[in-house]
Amino acid sequence: MLSNEVPHFIREHKVAFRLYDKLPAYFKVTQVLYFLPKLYLVLFMFSVLKNMTGIWREKRSDTKNVVSKAGYIFALNIFLSTAFTGTGDLFSTELITWSVLYVNGTFISVFLFGQRNPDYNRVIRTENIKRHYIKSKIKDLDIEKVMSELQQMMENEKAFASEDISLKIVAEELSITPHQLSELINKKFRKNFNTYINDFRINEAKKMLTEEPGRSITSIAIAVGFNTNTAFSAVFSKSEGMSPKQYRQSFKKR
């Protein structure tokens, strides 16, 4: 059956190309111009999809992330339907028919989803701009140099022990923007700035709790950068599953 269909397919296109050759130049140009916008849209949507792939690596399940993922799926459908329609323009009118049905289904889905989630368009636009901004801001950085300087600040200079440390202050020391620093920490360590700093503080506190048994817990809390014993105990307990006092006692028993 296939062997009969292929020659028929080829014959159809030979006829189509002969008819195209006989068309006046104006109609030929019109046909090409009719195809070019589809090609542009396919290339544009490919770029959008590429920039938005990061949303699938995010673990959060809030409304903004759900809407962004839905937007990605809709964008993928627009990309595929446009590609099918453009291919149909060149090779098959039947493919155009199915592509039109696909396009209509996609736009109806987008419309219904947009009615149910009024913030859909705003969220998609904001997320896409934000991702493009982030990418353009860090792509020219010497990331290894910045991360090396950050490591030196934390491990050698113990910058985390400063009570007033902030994302802005550290970024200024590294001669980059807070947005760049936040993104770098997130990409390298999969954590935000506060968690990054607190991890250093807790590790330093654990050393003090075991190496300086006579030192008070409040003194240790202040030494590693916490302004209150309560805040220190809360972060320590969340990290280690026990209070600083219990950690010290368990080490003595060991």
Structure description:
This protein is an all-alpha fold. The chain folds into 2 domains: 2-134, no CATH class; 143-253, Homeodomain-like (Arc Repressor Mutant, subunit A, Orthogonal Bundle), CATH 1.10.10. The chain is 79% helix and 0% strand. The chain has 12 helices and no strands. The longest helix is centred in the N-terminal third of the chain and has 29 residues, at 63-91. The N and C termini lie far apart (79 Å). 16% of the residues are buried. Mean pLDDT is 76; it is low at 1-6.
Key descriptive features of the protein:
254 residues; mainly alpha; Arc Repressor Mutant, subunit A; 12 helices
Unreliable runs:
1-6
- Main structural class: mainly alpha
Largest sheet, if any?
none
Range of strand content: under 5%
Helix content: over 70%
Give me the number of helical elements. 12
Q: Residue-averaged pLDDT, rounded?
A: 76
From the alpha carbons, calculate the radius of gyration and give it in angstroms. 30 Å
* Number of E-state strands: 0
Q: What is the N-to-C succession of helices and strands?
A: HHHHHHHHHHHH
Distance between the termini: 79 Å
Envelope shape: elongated
**How many separate domains?**
2
Overview in brief:
With 254 residues, the protein is mainly α. The protein is 79% helix and 0% strand. Helix 7 (167-173) packs across helix 8 (178-189).
